[in-house]
């Protein structure tokens, strides 16, 4: 197991290196720079700013300097927020995004698993078609459409829930969590339906029924664990995707999270901030994928023991 | 009053392609402590009729059309689901065919064992655990307390079937339904499990409804026999009536299909060696140990095996699952990397032969596999399947290939009109004919047949075996026939090789080995074969 984990971590190094290099040269080749958008700044001020942040050096030299700093865990200073470091800004806003991601994940898992299992119990009936059609719509609908729609219905017409903010008014976390979690709920619903359908035809389900167990015990105790294996394998990538994909929702609902900084940084050509958030999200995605692989292995007793063959 | 009295049971499946009658007007009774065996080939409705009693058939498409099943005076078929559930696993228990898939892999053996006690008998978990460990002990599981905590994958197939039996008997049911309980097991394990079922049945006076396709097993265990064919009851009677004095043509055909006795007309073969294997070793690296302490193991699947096959011979390679017999077959064709040893085919060394020359050699050695469902490409028609090897090895041209494929179809006894059909349009036996046709297409000298008839029903098996004999004769083939079925091997092969744990423990002329086995393993193997009395 340790070998597996360390192997996966070693694989992550070249991946990260490629991400860093590609991002660095891409953003530096984009037209404009962090200070070019500012109006009416005297030329010598720009020159001084560029000199201060080493932007007057050749790109490859900047790249090497950046790698050197990065190796020491330093993402550098923000170009747009003078006096604040990228490290500070990422870890300052991470909490909000993580909280949003967690709620969205709860929404996704609870709704998704319920819908999927309900659908799988009576395949090819209304009980299956209705949730699965809704799930299909959920997968197709982007969050920048779903968010405003929810705001329109629940915030403006019904006036049930606040339409923006985070932690200011009670209930203002509900709509963002649903908006972010919806498409993942839909995906999880399809995964759990598929998993459950397969497990319900297994011989050991027939054995459980032959033992005279009540149907809910058959489903919850005997079928669910196997049926949700595909969902568990998907949780890691899903959570990483939720975090990285949160910027749309954060922008719609005015949430001061990491995603919003990311988008702002891209518009502002805040080179170090873009680099910092990109690297942070890449690491998160790699780590969560690894975590869900470990979890999936751990849940399956056969993989957990790996005792190899019969012993009795 | 009989314990179970089934009257005029009719079950059908309502599918898109119309209504299929799976069980048609079946009636039988079982008394306390009695054993009724239902025998029939696949699709005869023997399993469906038993599953219907406990409402375990999938509904829809399944539908019980009519009939009654009185169990201790109550009709199971008209009972509501809650009442039936109280009987399932409590008064009527079941064991199933495949112990590898019938236990939940995610739960410990103990957790699964105590469920019937907890739900039917309101035992506390501690009481149930004590009883479970006692029952595990009774079914012959060593160290039952440790086994209680283990997961199914930590047991072998035979041990899992013991666990299934323990689970079925833990509530002391009045009736046990056993659906092909030994079909998936090796012959020595089968003998142990049958003995165990019989012993427990007698000790606890349990009625047994035993479903099987294997007449020899049935003749060993049953008091009464019901023969089914395509949903209909062919006949019913005491064991002796059915096995010794049957008037029914179908029953007689079934009995005649069982391979028995020695090979007919086995004249002496030339001593001209076609295949010489010496010191063959095929090892696989595997890992074991817990997650944090990995060990690398060497699985010696085939360890130092040497034998010779002469031209025109049919040589049987027998052994139980895991003995390495299939690995030998694959190693011979160089489908697996060989660790050490020499394989000489027609005096040419195959081990280490360059891929290009190996291709020409492969034309001369072909393989037939066990599962005719999985080994044919479902997207290729019969014509494509049979034409491919001919064209690949340059044995036919675009012009002649059509005629040659038709000849092959004649050879294996398939209608010429089936040329454009796909594999799913054929039955299992017909598919195996296609697979045989594909194997003989290149006019090979050696055919390696890996369990070619073990997925087939007994009447179909008899047909395929006679086809094999006919083709061997006609095309002057040499064959290595790999099988776990010792009766089949005896009726077909000139010589036999016996494998055990990767070693060749005994080899010799078929009759010599069957009459006077030398190695203790061969002796055990032969005595475990269930025989028609």
TrEMBL record, chain A:
Transmembrane regions listed in the UniProt entry: 12-30, 100-121, 133-158, 174-192, 231-253, 273-296
Cell compartment(s), UniProt: Cell membrane
Protein name: ABC transporter permease subunit
InterPro entries: BPD_transp_1_N, MetI-like, MetI-like_sf
KW Cell membrane (keyword) present: yes
Keyword Transmembrane: yes
UniProt record similarity statement: Belongs to the binding-protein-dependent transport system permease family. OppBC subfamily.
Membrane topology type: Multi-pass membrane protein
Annotated ABC transmembrane type-1 domain residues: 94-292
PROSITE patterns the UniProt entry points to: ABC_TM1 (PS50928)
Superkingdom assignment: Bacteria
An example Gene Ontology biological process: transmembrane transport
Main location: membrane
Alphabetical keyword list: Cell membrane, Membrane, Transmembrane, Transmembrane helix, Transport
A GO cellular component annotation in the UniProt record: plasma membrane
